[in-house]
Design brief:
Strand content: 35-45%
Number of helices: 0
Number of strands: 16
Helix content: under 10%
Radius of gyration: 17 Å
Largest sheet: 4 strands, antiparallel
Distance between the termini: 26 Å
Oligomer: single chain
Length: 203
């Protein structure tokens, strides 16, 4: 019912992503080239992108681990509120890692990520492994967002000509099938998001 204002970060109005740690209630905000943490009283800068390499996406998992992605192929992970970081690169060092600004943590704490050119990956230790069987072919060039409930994963798929709709996996991303059903290409003309509620209903 009541709203309060949190002071802006160094008068910065270019916020790229936000995340909340449900364990500590800390707020994380990524500006164009840095990551900040709000502890309930003050903002503190906990990471920069180290050059002209813009922030891309940000999420905190169920254990409070922070994942911060920058455009040029690297995910940074912190297990201690941003005091220390490790860098996680895609398994093919020549291709690197990049996302569309979409990360998702499942109920069982699996980090899922989208790469705009070749689909969905999940983080296993320090490796980003593909979950693209039945999803990517000559017409499907990438995904934009993924959500999940239990073993059911849903993602948006795009082609060279634009969005074609929703794909579903009933086995935690091992295989995918088209899930458009009665949706048509016209339903996706202004399409830009997908969401899932606690009961597994997709919107």
């Amino acid at each position: 019912r009541n709203w309060g204002t949190i002071e802006r970060i160094e008068d910065n109005n270019n916020y790229v992503a936000f995340a909340i740690d449900n364990n500590s209630s800390d707020i994380y905000a990524a500006t164009a080239y840095a990551l900040f943490r709000f502890n309930g009283e003050n903002w503190s800068m906990i990471k920069t992108t180290q050059g002209n390499n813009p922030s891309q996406c940000l999420i905190v998992d169920n254990d409070g681990n922070i994942y911060y992605s920058v455009y040029l192929f690297t995910i940074h992970k912190s297990t201690n509120y941003g005091s220390d970081w490790t860098s996680i690169n895609y398994q093919d060092s020549n291709q690197g890692w990049s996302t569309t600004g979409a990360m998702y943590v499942t109920e069982d704490n699996i980090l899922l990520m989208n790469r705009w050119w070749d689909g969905i990956y999940w983080l296993s230790g320090d490796n980003c492994l593909p979950l693209n069987s039945g999803l990517i072919d000559g017409n499907h060039v990438g995904t934009q967002k993924v959500v999940a409930k239990g073993v059911n994963y849903f993602t948006t798929v795009k082609t060279t000509s634009g969005i074609i709709g929703i794909y579903k996996s009933s086995n935690s991303g091992e295989n995918w099938v088209n899930y458009n059903h009665n949706l048509t290409e016209y339903d996706f003309l202004q399409y830009n998001n997908i969401a899932i509620n606690s009961f597994g209903k997709v919107y």
